[in-house]
Each structure stands twice: as C-alpha cells, then as structure tokens.
Amino acid sequence: MSEHIAPKRLYFFVFGSLLVLTLLTWRIAYIDLGPWNTVVALAIAVLKAGLVATFFMHLRWSGSMMRIIVCAAIFWLAIMITLTLGDILTRNVVSPSQGWQAPAAVVQTTAPSIQQH
Amino acid sequence: MHNSNSVVAEQFDDRIQQHEASNLGMWIFLATEIMFFGGLFTGYTIYRNLYTSGFETASHLLNAKLGAFNTAVLICSSLTMALAVHAAQTGKRKKLIAYLLSTMSLGLVFIYIKFILEWHHDYLEGLAPGLHFTYAGPHARHVELFFCFYFVMTGVHALHMIVGEGVLAVLLVMAWRGRFSTEKYNPIEMMGLYWHFVDIVWIFLFPLLYLLGARF
Amino acid sequence: MSSAEAELPIESRVHYLNADYGIKSWLLTTDHKRIGLMYLVSITFFFCFGGVAATLMRLNLLEPQGLLVEPETYNKLFSMHGIIMVFFFLIPSIPAVLGNFLIPMMIGARDVAFPRLNLLSWYVFMTGGLLTLYAVIAGGVDTGWTFYTPLSTQYSNTHVMAAAAGIFIAGFSSILTGMNFVVTIHKMRAPGLSWFRLPLFIWAMYATSIIFILGTPVIAISLVLIALERWFHVGIFDPALGGDPILFQHMFWFYSHPAVYVMILPSMGVVSELITTFSRKKIFGYHFIAFSSIAIAAIGFLVWGHHMFVSGQSIYAGLVFSALSFAVAIPSAVKVFNWTATLYKGSISYDAPMLYALGFIGLFTIGGLTGLYLSTLAIDQHVHATYFVVAHFHYIMVGGAVMGYLGGIHYWWPKISGRMYPDGWARVAAIIIFVGFNLTFFPQFILGYLGMPRRYAVYPAEYHTLNVVSTAGASILGLGYVIPLIYLIWSMRYGREAGPNPWHATGLEWTTASPPPPHNFEETPVVTEEPYSYDRLAEEIQVA
After folding, report:
1. Domains of chain C (ranges, CATH numbers)
2. pLDDT tens-digit readout, C473-486
3. Complex confidence, ipTM
4. Residues of chain C neighbouring A84 (CB-CB closer than 8 A)
5. If we measure between CA atoms, which residue out of C32, C30, C74 comes closest to residue C54?
6. Does domain B23-210 have CATH number 1.10.10.10?
7. Could you report the per-residue pLDDT of A28-62, keeping only the tens digit for each?
8. Sign for the pseudo-dihedral over CA of C102, C103, C104, C107
C-alpha cells in the first residue's frame, strides 16, 4: 500500500461539496416532501459521510482490507438495528406508550410452594 | 529497548509494515466506535418509529440554524485536519502547526456552541431530563425521551471531541518540537482518521436530531 | 537459535524471564510473554473471588430454607459470581493469557503489532477489575450479571454504578486485545506462512477478536445508559417516558451472546492443537475447522434473542431467533466431528492435556445439545430461568471453556516456564475435575427440568437431595482446581527441565527454546510446510 499524498485541490473540492450538501439538507427540511424528507436527509448524510471517508480518510487509496472493515461494521450495525426493530414492530400487544396495566385476573399458579423461613 | 528516535518500531520489519499495521489498527478502532455510537442510533431508531409525532415535536424545539452552522464548523475542521496531514506528509512544519491549531480552534467553537449556546439554553428552557424538565406541551413524555437521546448522543459525541482536542494538543506540542518529518508522520494521519470519524458521526446526528418533522 | 543452544540449561541462557529483573521490568514490560503471565496471575486472582462466591452459594443451597445467607445476600452472591467469572475470568482467560503468549510465536513474529497497547490493556483490565472488587467489598450488586432494567436503573439500592463502571472499563481491555490480535495476524506472519498454514488456534483467536471488536462496544454503551439513567434519571429504558426495558435486553444480549462464543472459541482452538499432538495425526478437515470458527463468530451475532423468548419480545422475533440458534449449532458440531475423525486411527497418548481435551469434547457436546433444547421455543417456556439453563451454560463454560484453558495451560506450560509439571498429579487432577464437575452440574439438569428456578436462595423440599449431590460435587471440583495451582507453582522451581519440544509437536512455538528468548526467535523462521505434518519422519521434529 503506498502512502498516498492527495492533492490539496481535491480536499478543497470535497470541502466545497460538503458545505453545499449541508446547506441543501438544511433547506430541504423546510420543503414538504412527506415521508421523503427523511429519505432525502439520510441519503444526503450518507453521501457526505462517503465523501469524508473516501477522500479525507483516504479510503480511496487504502487497501481493500479497510473498506471491508468499514462495510463489516456498518453491516453489523444493520443487524443490530434490523433484528431489534423486527421485534418492536411485530409486537401486537399493548404498546408501551399506553402504559402498563394490571391484568384483569390473577393467574393461578401450580408451582410447588416455597417454604418460608 | 525502545529507541524513540528510530523510524521503525522494533516489532516491525520495515516502515511499510508499520504504516499498514497502524492504519489497520486505527480503522479497527473506528469500527468499534461505529458499534458504540450504533447502540445509541439503534435506540433512537426504535423510539423514532414508535413515537414519531412526539419526536417531531421535540425536534422543533432544537435550533436547526445553530445545528447547521455547527455542522459547517466541523466540516471546516475536517478540511484543516486533512490539510494538516498533507503538511505533515510533505514535511511542512509551520503549516502543520497552523492547521493543527485551526482544527483545534474550530473544534472549540463547536464545543462552545454545543455546551453554552445549546445545552445551557435548553436547560434554562426546561428541556433537560433528570435536571430541569418542565415541558408540558403535546407528547410531553415522548419529548422528554427525545431529549434523553439528544443529550446522550450529543454528549457522547462532544466527549469524543474533547478527547480529540486533548490528543491534538499533544500532537501540536510534538510538531512544535519538530518530531514529525516526511519519514515520520503516522500519528498525525491516524489522528486525522479519528477526527474525520467524529465529523461523520455529527453528519448523521444533525439531520436525525434537528431536521425531523414539518417545518413548513 | 541453534539446537545446541536451545538445549542449554535454563539458568545459563538468556530468556524472557531472566532478561531483566525487578518489579519495574514487569510493570513496564512490553514483552507479550510477560504480559501474558501478568494476565495469568490476574485472572487466577479473580477466579478465586468468583469461586468463593460459588462456594457460598452451594453451601447455602444445602438446605431448602437456605443454610447460610439471607436472600438479599444470596442475590449479591450470584451476581458477583457471574460478573467476576464472566468478565474477569472467562472472557480474558485464553485470549489474554495463551493468546498473548502464543500468537506472535505461532506466526514467527517478535511481538504483537502494538506492544504498548498490549501493556495498556492489562492496566485497563486491572483498573476495571479492582473497581468491580470495590463494588463487592462495599456491599455488592444484586441485579445479576445481566443488569436488567428497571431493577438496575431504578429499584436496586446496591452498587450498580461501580460494578457497571468496572465492566465498562474492562471492556476496553478486550477491544485493545482484539485490535492487536487482528493486526498482528494480518500483518506479521513469517514468510511462507499463508492463511491456510496457520495453526487452528490462530484461526480461533482471529474469530474471537472479531467478536471483541464488533460486540464489546455495544455492552459498553448499554452500561453507560444504565449509569446515566441511574445517576441523572435520563430514562431511555423508563416506561414512564415510553421507554422499553426490553430494549436494554436487546442491547445487552447483542454483545453478551457473542461473548459466550468469545469464551468457547479459544478453547476450541486449544482443543484442535491438543487433539492433533496427542493423536500424532494431522487434523481432519483443517479448512472446515478454520471456517467453522469464523462461522460461529458471524452467526453468533444473529441469535441473541434466544435469551429473551419469555421477556415480552414479539413471537415472530422469537421464531427468527430460534431458527438462527439452530443454525449456529452446526459449525460447532462440525468441529466435534472433525476432532473425532482426527482421533480415529490416531496414536493416542493420555497425557494431562489430552485428558482435558477429551473431557472437553464430551462435556461440550452435552452442553451444546442442551442448548438446542433451549432454542426450542416450546421447551424454553418451561425451563427458562431454571437450573436447566444453569447446567447448560456451566457444561459449556466449565466443562468446555475451563477444561480447554487448563489443557492449554498444561500443554504450553513447558514452553512458558521451561519446566515440566509432575505428570501423575496432573492426570489425577484432571480426573478429579471431570468427576467433580459432572457431580455438580448433571443433577442441575434434572433440577431444572423438575422446575427449580435459578437465582433462588431457597427451594421446595423435594429438590433437597439433588442439591446436596450438587454441592458435594462442587467440593470435589474445587479440590480438583487447587491441585494444579500447587504443582504448577512447584514446578517453576523444581520441575524437570523440558527442552524446546517435550511433546514432539509441530508448530513454530516448539522450534525455539523453553523458555523462549526475549524476541522469540533468533532469526525469523521461514515456513515451508503444511500445519500438523505428523506424517513426516520423526527426525524432522526436534527431540527434547
């Protein structure tokens, strides 16, 4: 792997793009796109992060191992979010926001009794 | 045992192996940071899905303009950090010092805005869960939950920035003493990776915390 | 190093133990071998505390009304037993002791990639451990090692913060170790040592390191959130704000399930080494074993919800996690098949390390199979939170991981210390441990099936006999652990000098002197052959 020295021009170009994208994401929040607001905001964030990682962090010129590490971490985070969200979204009991309520009848237990001391 | 003047540490065979090892090590550390912040993002995603209206109401109570400005500040600091690495790679000591100082200053601006203009303001407004929370508008409970996430996520991020400032200070002193050269600039490059990562976390925090819900 | 020089008596050579003297040379060392020994002392120290807690628990359970302690105290005992054994003994054991000592040697390197970070990780570990011990001395913690909310965040009045902080800090030790190992294995292999020539211990450690890196940060943030909720009432898991206590369980188990693979994978790596050496035979299915380690690490991240079947988690999530849990058993079974196939027609010798390895295979199989029962939703409904679960994980953690650890310690002891331990005593101790272990934990499968809940200080009279058997077994097990402690320390001074390769094993670590010189090898070795080439002629392997 060569210790690549990127041209400063490239850094300034990326910097400019990042500022433009920041302005864009801020202003778009004031336009009604319905559910697409979130999608666009996240897409812009991913693009900005990609620019920083690829050029400022030199991923463009690093070995494939670094890219694998980044992809692995993102993938593992996706696992955590997906499976957890999968649980939350498929519960069809009383949602936590409505508060816990005591059950109507107390369940009769058939377990052997514990001796008190 | 350790000759701190030699370019290659004794467990390595050559400079290339040392550089590749450091790079790999730093990226692995950043992977752990992705998972660390990831836990917070997971919780945030869950509750955002469950309590969308509450979270949108809460997001409006944040100052999006200030957040956007802070985003720009961090992006500037990423530029100066990248330029610092460039200066180190090309052996330009004075520029290295200047860019490290700029990065530190911009970081301090960010921290000032975050703690004084935003956190302190939120506390006075009665939006600090556990300390002073008096909001009684719609979805009050979920707004409080949102602010729990807001303070924890921006707090953990700010903590990473403060640690970063500390390391930058150490590197600044080392640069001042002429410890870096075209042959030996690894710590600057590794610090660059860390700083850019902290920037990336904020790039996601900004839209997720500040830009939710209708502002039109 | 020439063979002649390696044969010299220990005192007349320079090696890593005598190269430098004084407490500073140990506390400021960057030698991976010395750091491995420092970890050995540390985890043995913590094991004693965890063992004392277990002793008090088993003594208490001699009587149905509880013989020794109040339930509140019992809660603290099982919590401390779990916390100390999991975080301060099992998780670091093989990686920090044997991994640190052996990985550079097995790959022909002078040290790990980041020796100073290695030393730092030991200090971080000790800081976390001492903080947790402070929590014990100050009065303990009663939430269980699982820290479930809202008990841990709102209702417990024990030292949750100190214990959580201790574990949080110790987690960084794991992260640093994992980082070090991955970079070392990637970047510092000797010439000719391609990935598929690596010893299987290295594959196992690599897989373990992946778990350290991707999993540990999640428990770190979970503990931070517990601390924030407890201290600042920042209630992310608080139902009063709409928070979900089960979210904590998701985040906790996302790490803590892969953590159990951290505890077993290195042991499996050790067993692979022991089986080949003591059957004098090339391992069967090298690629399968190597890839199964990676598969266990990867699939192990997908199954955490099987700890939460009865927690209130959605039934659909339960189905998914149950199916995935069945899948993760497959690579483990692959290993057991391959080890057995290696034994077949091998020339087997029953040295102490081999006794531990064989014990591992049997006990791990039982533990693993009972894991499948627990992954079955319908069965888990009945045995969740009973002694069935306790027996299951002790079969794997103690019958598996600890026996693998002891086997590894005995196997590499000549390399570490330069001396042999007394073989007779070692075999006797291995058998005592095996018998004591089964007496302790097999009755617990029955107790759990019959309905005895775990974490209870008292129990109904009909469970009395089995509890007494279990406690009797525990006393035998304890005796079994004390014996190696004595003779291993004895051997450091009085043991027979071992020479470079007392087992006539393959592997780079056996080509250098015992104890090794400070930089492991005088010249970087060049690797030209496949691993475990026992089919080669005897004279190609160094003779003691």
Report:
1. 3-540 (1.20.210.10)
2. 999 999 999 999 99
3. 0.93
4. 247, 250-251, 254
5. C74
6. no
7. 998 888 888 889 999 999 999 999 999 999 999 98
8. positive
